[in-house]
Design a protein that fits this description.
This protein is mainly alpha-helical. It is 37% helix and 4% strand. Strands 1-2 form a two-stranded parallel sheet. The protein binds a DNA duplex (13 and 13 nucleotides) through helix 2, helix 3 and strand 2.
Length: 113
DNA sequence: AACCTGACTTCGG
DNA sequence: TCCGAAGCCAGGT
């Protein structure tokens, strides 16, 4: 599909364990760099039922966006479980843990180079 | 159809 | 460095 939210879902599924991505980064990978909020919407809407790695998504500041009262601890725990270092304040070193998508060749057909 | 909302992002003070 | 305002996308009311 080429609906924005479907692309977002596809990208979310590609985030590998031990890595994180920012809302904006995901939006950008979905060809809509300004749709960070749409990523939020997608997570709210499909993360649970589609079992998306919502906990691997953080904000551009490199911190967990969830409020302490709603999932902050769970997200931090899940990330730590994947060896991601998250400070007690929810800060993550993007230089180290941000996912660098191995962009696949946009095989329109199977053209080379 | 207008207005509000959300786990955002960027910019200016 | 922290805070506030404005811009963004799309769905929900």
């Amino acid at each position: 599909m080429d609906l924005l939210h479907t692309r977002i879902i596809g990208i979310l599924r590609q985030i590998p364990k031990g890595k994180v991505a920012t809302y904006g980064q995901i939006a950008a990978l979905a060809d809509s760099p300004r749709a960070a909020r749409q990523v939020v919407w997608v997570l709210h809407t499909h993360a649970d039922k589609l079992k998306l790695p919502w906990f691997r998504v953080i904000n551009s500041k490199g911190t967990i966006s969830l409020p302490r009262s709603a999932g902050f601890e769970e997200q931090r725990t899940r990330l730590m479980r994947e060896k991601v270092i998250v400070s007690p304040a929810g800060k993550i070193d993007l230089k180290v843990f941000q996912w660098s998508p191995a962009r696949k060749p946009v095989r329109k057909k199977k053209s080379a180079t």
